[in-house]
Amino acid sequence: MSSQGRSSPGRLGELLAIMARLRAVDGCPWDREQTFASIVPYTIEEAYEVADAIERGDMAHLRDELGDLLFQVVFLSQIAGESGHFDFDAVAGAICEKLIRRHPLVFSRPAAHTAAEQSAVWEDIKAAERGGAAGAADVAASELDGVPRALPALLRAGKLSKRAARVGFDFARADDAADKVAEELAEVRGAAANGASAATFEEVGDLLFAAANLARKLGVDAEAALRAANEKFERRFRGMESLAAARGRGFDTLSLAAQELLWQEMKRGE
Fold first, then answer.
1. Is the pTM of this model over 0.70?
2. What is the pLDDT of residues 210-255, one digit of tens each?
3. Distance CA 99, CA 160 (A)
4. CATH code that applies to domain 3-101
5. How many whole angstroms separate alpha carbon 161 and alpha carbon 221?
6. Neighbours of 193 (CB within 10 A)
7. Integer Cα distance of 65 and 52 in angstroms
8. 76-100 pLDDT per residue, tens
9. Angle (deg, nearest 10), helices 222-246 and 197-217
10. Which residues lie below 8 Å from residue 84, measured CB to CB, with a gap of 6+?
11. Residue 194, by phi and psi: left (phi above 0), alpha (psi -120 to 50) or beta?
12. Phi-psi region of 43 (alpha: psi -120 to 50; beta: other; left: phi over 0)
C-alpha cells in the first residue's frame, strides 16, 4: 500500500517501530547515545522551523517540519520508556485527558460558547491544576507557576505579565504601559551615561520586559512581532547591499549618511 493510502495510526505505529529499532542494541550508534538533554536543542530547533514554514506559507515544507517535530516527541518518549518513566501511549493519553478536562463546555456539559468563554475556562482550570500540584508538593502556589524557564525570554516575559494581570497586577491602560517603556528607556540612558555596565545590563532587561508588557496590552504577540521586524531588517539590509553593488560600490565603503539614504530608499520601495 502506498504511503498516502495508509492510515495515520498505521504510520504512527511504523514511526514508533523505527524509533525502537534505531535505539536497539544493534541500532544506530548516534541515536543510541542521545539523552533527554542532548535532544532538547533539536526539539527547540524543529519547533522554530515549523513556525518558519507557517509564516512563509510553505505547506510542503510544513509537512516535513511537522514530521521532524513529531519525531522529537517520539524520540524523547522512547528514551523515557527505556528508563521506565513513560512511553508514547502515556504521552498521548495525558494530552487526550487534558484536552477533555479543559474543555468542559465541549465534552462535559456541551453548550454554545464563544472562544473568549472557552479561553477563560481553560485558564481557570489551569490555575486550579497549578494550585493542586503545589498542594500535593507541599509548596506555596504562585500565579506564575508553570511558566517554563526555557521559553525564549521575550515570550516568557509576555506570559509572566499575563499571569500577573490575571490577579490584578496590571496597568489600567496601554498608554500607562507605554509610559513605563519611556521611563525604562530613560533609566537605560542614565545608566549608560554613568558608564555602569552592570546597571545598564539590568536596565536594558527592564526596558525589554516593559516593551513585552506593552505588546501584551496592545494585543500584539511580541515574539511574532520581533520575528517580523527581524525579517524586515534583513530584507532591507540585503536590499541596500544589492543597491550598492549595482552602483559599483561596496556597502561597507559607504559613509553612514550614504547607508541611511539607501535604507530610506528601500523603505520607500516597499
1. no
2. 999 999 999 999 988 998 999 999 999 999 999 999 999 999 999 9
3. 23
4. 1.10.287.1080
5. 13
6. 9
7. 9
8. 999 999 999 999 999 999 999 999 9
9. 110
10. none
11. alpha
12. alpha
Q: What are the cell numbers at 140?
A: 506555596
Give which of 116, 114, 103 is closest to 219, Cα–Cα. 116
For residues 47 and 264, give the distance between their C-alpha atoms in angstroms, rounded to a whole number.
Answer: 35
CB-based contacts of 161-170 (< 8 A; 24+ apart in sequence): 161/209, 161/212, 161/213, 161/216, 162/216, 165/216, 166/123, 166/127, 167/143, 170/217
Could you identify the residue written with the cell 540585503?
A: 238
Sketch the domain layout of the chain as residue ranges.
Answer: 3-101, 142-220, 224-269
- Domain 142-220: homologous superfamily in CATH: MazG-like (1.10.287.1080)
Q: What is the dihedral sign for C-alpha 181, 227, 68, 33?
A: negative
Grid coordinates representing 198? 552592570
> How remote is the C-alpha of 60 from its chain's centroid?
22
